[in-house]
Amino acid sequence: MPRVQPYRDAAGEYRWRRIADNGNVIADSGEGYRHKRECLEMAKANFPEDPFDWTLLPDPDALIDDGDDVEDEANL
Asked: In the CATH scheme, what is the code of domain 3-61?
């Protein structure tokens, strides 16, 4: 099953990418989001059944809380 991987880009904006079982990126957000909440909401709107994958981030600090009162990642 494909999974959604949220991450932070070099400009500090939040993005998501959808990853197939073979590891290929099959979709991405196409734009950066200032707030993590916006990024996660758009990813869930596009792929509501896909699990979020927090383990593939190359840098464990790549997705940090920006303080805008986001739901716990475990609840997504």
From this structure: 3.30.160.160
